[in-house]
Specification:
With about 240 residues, the chain is α+β, with helices and mostly antiparallel strands. It is about 50% helix and about 15% strand. Helix 3 packs antiparallel against helix 4 and helix 4 runs antiparallel to helix 5. This is PH domain-containing protein.
Length: about 240
């Protein structure tokens, strides 16, 4: 049940953030129209409940699923639902704080920037992407593009949160942006690391399959090969 809810959160990120913003505005209207106690309780309890669910529910959430983008010939690693829930909880809490900040410019600027960054991470496209030409690792301040030809030995899942790549030809890696990240380490918070390692190894060892990356047909094939049901969660 929990996994199904988290998968829905991941697939409906915009809806979750929009609902949180709507709830925050309702709570703020309540506060301004005389419902001070109720709005305070709701404005505190709601983000706390979301935070507790995010911590407890997402700790072991490691879906064996990729997101197909046929128009870009890309497979994206899903956004971790904990990121989305954090943005939702802080939206409620931040809107309440902004409403009570008055003329405190420091508080106003801090929460506006914090909410903007959280929304960016929740709704944006960061993390690992698989493309016919290689692996893209996209961060807020920079990115790396690792051609398949640069890979040496199979990728290894050192821990549930990170995948380690062996680069036989590191000079082929292209780096972009203000900050350069280690291209041998891929963050896997939104996906099962062993599953991603297996998919990467398949494309490394079988160049002929790379042209199909991003297609729904190829996603279905990966689903069948790696033994997951269509929803992207491990079979019981």
């Amino acid at each position: 049940m929990t996994n199904a809810v988290l998968e829905w959160v991941d697939r409906r990120r915009g809806v979750v953030v929009a609902v949180a913003l709507s709830a925050a505005l309702v709570i703020e209207v309540m506060r301004r129209t005389g419902g001070g106690t109720g709005s305070m309780l709701l404005g505190t309890a709601l983000p706390l409940a979301v935070a507790l669910f995010a911590v407890a529910g997402t700790r072991s959430y490691r879906p064996r699923r990729l997101v197909a983008r046929p128009d870009e010939n890309t497979f994206d690693v899903p956004v971790h639902p904990g990121t989305v829930l954090a943005a939702a909880g802080y939206t409620v809490l931040g809107t309440r704080t902004l409403g009570m900040a008055g003329d405190n410019v420091i508080v106003l600027v801090f929460w506006i920037v914090a909410l903007a960054v959280l929304w960016l991470f929740a709704l944006g496209r960061f993390g690992v992407r698989l493309r016919p030409e290689g692996i893209a690792d996209v961060h807020l301040l920079g990115s790396s593009v690792i051609p398949w030809e640069a890979l040496g030995a199979p990728a290894t899942a050192g821990n549930p949160h990170q995948l380690r790549l062996d680069l036989a030809r590191p000079e082929l890696v292209a780096r972009h942006g203000a900050r350069h990240f280690d291209p041998t380490r891929l963050t896997t918070t939104g996906i099962d690391a062993a599953f991603l390692a297996a998919v990467i190894e398949e494309y490394r060892a079988q160049p002929g399959r790379r042209s199909a990356i991003g297609t729904e047909y190829e996603l279905s094939r990966l689903t069948a090969v790696h033994g997951v049901r269509s929803g992207g969660l491990p079979q019981p």
